[in-house]
Amino acid sequence: SSQSLDLRLPTPGCYADPVRAGMDADAVFDGMTEHLFFTLGKLATSASLRDLYMALSFAVRDRLMSRYLTSQETIRARPQKTVAYLSAEFLIGPQLNNNLLNLGIKKEAEEALKRFGIESLNEILEVEEEPGLGNGGLGRLAACYMESLASLQVPAVGYGIRYEFGIFNQLIRDGWQVEVTDKWLKGGWPWELPQPDEACLVGFGGQTESYTDDNGNYRSRWIPSEHAIGVPHDVPVLGYRVNSCDRLRLWRADATESFDFYAFNIGDYYGAVEEKVASETLSKVLYPNDGTDEGRRLRLKQQHFFVSCSLQDMLRSLEKRSIAVEEFPNHWTVQLNDTHPAIAVAELMRLLIDQHRLDWDKAWEITNRSVAYTNHTLLPEALEKWDLSLFKNLLPRHLELIYEINRRFLQQVRLKYPGNDLILRKLSIIDEEGGKAIRMAHLATIGAHHVNGVAALHSDLIKRQLLPEFAQLWPEKFTNVTNGVTPRRWVALANPELSKLLDKEIGPNWITNMDLLLELEKKENDSNFLDLFASAKLSGKRKLAGYIHRQTGVLVDPSSLFDVQVKRIHQYKRQHLNALQVIAQYLRIKNGITKNIAPRTVIFGGKAAPGYFMAKLMIRFINGIADVVNADPDMDGLLRVVFLPDYNVKLGEQVYPATDLSEQISTAGKEASGTGNMKFAMNGALTIGTLDGANVEIRDRVGAENFFLFGKTESEIMELRDQGYSPNSFIAESNELQETLKLIEVGHFSNGDSELFRPIINILTGNDPFFVMADFDDYLRAQDEVSKAWKKSKKWNRMALLNTARSGFFSSDRSIREYCQSIWKVKPLPVEISCEK
Ligand code: T68
User: Fold this and answer.
1) Where N6-(pyridoxal phosphate)lysine occurs, residue numbers (predicted)?
2) Cα–Cα distance for residue pair 678/813, rounded to 1 Å
3) Could you confirm whether 333 is annotated as catalytic?
4) Do 829 and 74 touch, CB atoms closer than 8 A?
5) Domains in the chain, please, with CATH?
6) Best substitution site from 377, 384, 386, 570 to test ligand 1's pocket, by max atoms within 8 Å of Cβ?
7) What is the distance between the alpha carbons of residues 465 and 383, in angstroms, rounded to a whole number?
8) pLDDT above 70 covers what percent of the chain?
9) pLDDT recorded at residue 837
10) CB within 8 A of 297, min separation 6: which ones?
11) Which of 101, 216, 487, 628 has the least C-beta neighbours within 10 A?
12) Within 13 Å of residue 423, how many CA atoms lie on the same side as its CB?
């Protein structure tokens, strides 16, 4: 029905579309002209590129409004369960191109732009600044999932925070990372719709009081000492060529007016303004994932702020439709994207008990039936804990509720393990070791009906290592949903050359059914096709080479092997292992051992958390190596090293299609899944990687012969650690490793400064927590395999093709279908746009 609608036709008389926005080039041109004139106050003759970007964006936004409003109206009229995806981060990337693609009016927009003298849509897309409302993989996953939900026509709302400043912009100065404030909202952002009438009030601090209610029941009430107002800013999330348009609802914190009025009366105008400024800092800035203890209190405030607004919003939606609060689990399924929104367990209990007057058991049943939790990390330092005194000071009523949740839960544990105090201490929400703290992963696990990891290996390790006692208690609660990425952004938009080839070869349906890519297997020995596949890659590499030259001044050869590691900089991701390998190759070339060398361009990109010293030093280290390598004529035609500044979604779109070799080299057991690994494979890059996260499943699917495996397995790493790992025993056995370390120590990559990279040497030769030394030799061996394979270009191209052909499993459409079936129990709700004649 809705599938058969030709969405590119004008939609006259459609519901809620008073401007009857047509989809042809004339209509897009007229829309742009009107927005230039009326919205932007500009004449077409004096419009800048940015003006044209804004005008086109508004014109496109107009054209998805009918779908957006009809989608909301459909769920109102035909109530069914809706997904509430709660995430502190949504790294959505640029919006214009994605909306043009999903609406199906890219050609029409290009035609309209020509009439403004713009020859290429890219000129306009270049202008768009992306909202950096996330740190990395976790935030980007949330964005891919929202896009797949809409494309699968599943009713969903993504709830999060509208940070005024997102992730910082990264500059490289003298090889060091410099952070610059991300002012993504300057000049206005055309994709959001503020809804001040739907604002919510959130309390903080103060104390609780006990009292007896009218029925003689003992109750508690919270009297907060401050409040903030959450104003929703909605971003439409349009599905691919369907009418379904979901939304992101991002909350901005405003000051409450009552304080202002009071201050005006007593004459303390400036005091009132200060109070306002203080409460508006709540949604001011996104916090980095590896920060120190900086801003911890504000971070907890942010979490409670957006979670409370979101839950109030869900409850209000029931009230508006006269649905009883007891029905909550039939209308909302609440997914916690890591523990950042885990306070939802306590907040939903509070809203149900204190405001909706439900008794404990009913409230708990509703909470538990509604909430599910996704874990994204096993790293102990990344598991969220809140200092008890901080928590009590900010959320006293929630602490009471958590104590009661814990008390009842521990009763259950006592029944199952009578007399076992050790297990009680292990399972308790309250960590009693050292200063008391709330373990958010425990709160989430107890409150949720399902707990999932993000790749098969990771989900298994959750059960075996992270929460074994919980997994024993509730085996059926624990499950896996391997991550996925949206093929719309990561293939169709990012890689137009490959997309054209796929369309021609297998038809356009791969975009929504990635399993169709398997048909490409037939072409594995077709030299003609392999050449076409390789030339699509070459075109991506040429574009990236141009970008690299403009940004860094380094000239790279598009015919060399593009060897890429882009991701946040972290010791467990081991960018330093890659850097050491580059030095080893440099030494071989210097020593004239070039027989087994393939010409390579080694590209790094990624941000380091501002407070993470070792990560920042790793960036400096890579740039030190790049300076020496790129200045040495002996390296010409053989080796180039590039650090791409300011890696973000937009740059990722240039990088994935241009990559031959994908570096996925984390210590086994440390990377929960990875999602960049999937984007590379879809775009026909081969992976060099460890058996970590989703690498395991990528290798299983693309075939071991099309994947460069190296390194210790997770169990071998554990064994090494238990035996008392000593990196020096590995160093002693490897001459190349000794020479590599020596060259760093003498200051060869730091202009003779033998101190600069000392901390890196010390950590690698000290306790080497991420087993870099243990994996070095095997990594070098695998890199030699890569060089050998690169020299047989037809074989390489076949391996690359098979990676694309067999990557369909890693579409986020598959992941979302799994969540819908096994965790959320939600069905699609097709949206019909009925046009009057
Ligand atoms: C990532 N986690 C995992 N965390 O590291 C990655 N953390 O393996 C996985 O593929 C991805 O999640 C999606 O599942 C993160 O990106 C954060 O960014 C983060 C942010 C704030 C606090 C802690």
Assistant:
1) 679
2) 13
3) no
4) yes
5) 79-93+130-481 (3.40.50.2000), 495-810 (3.40.50.2000)
6) 377
7) 14
8) 95
9) 35
10) 390, 394
11) 216
12) 18
